[in-house]
Each structure stands twice: as structure tokens, then as C-alpha cells.
Design goal:
Number of domains: 1
Strand order of the largest sheet: 1-2
CATH superfamily: ACT domain
Oligomer: single chain
CATH architecture: 2-Layer Sandwich
CATH class: Alpha Beta
CATH topology: Alpha-Beta Plaits
Distance between the termini: 31 Å
Number of strands: 4
Helix content: 25-40%
Number of helices: 3
Shape: globular
Radius of gyration: 14 Å
Amino acid sequence: MSKIFQIFDRYRTSIDVVTTSVTSVSATVEKEKHLPRIVKELQKLGEVTVLGNHKIPVEMISLEASNASITFVVAEKHANKTLQVLHKTYIEA
């Protein structure tokens, strides 16, 4: 955890919400300015997935240890787009 927080600190990027499990760490950030560099450094520690690639602001996220379940919160105005992205990514893939 310390290494993860050090990476965000290095790029002066605050974590809004963080959840952890035995096998994963999920975080949301408000500012994306340094996100590509942060992701590159985080990839040295493990697998990194960014859901924000579709410009859907995720307010909270939690991933089950088995990766079989993901929970997140988005504003209602983004619900339809979110469902479309999830369907294309996880059902059609």
C-alpha cells in the first residue's frame, strides 16, 4: 500500500476513495493530469485497469478478491453510457 500511495504522492494526485481486498486495490481520483504516468508506474506493481477511459466519472469502486464482482457508483446521468460500456467490455468481448 505504501508504494501505491507514494506513486500518487510523487505526482501530487490525491486519491478520493480507496478500497482494498486481499488481492486488489481500487481507487478513484479527481484529477487525471498525471494518470498515464501513474498507471505506468503502478503496472510495475501489478495489473492495472482504468475504467475512466470512457469519460465516465466513477465516484466509488470496489473489486471482489476473485474478480468475479465489481461494485462502483456513477451519477445517474451516466447510467446508460456506463451500461453500454460494461456490456461491450464484459459481455460482447
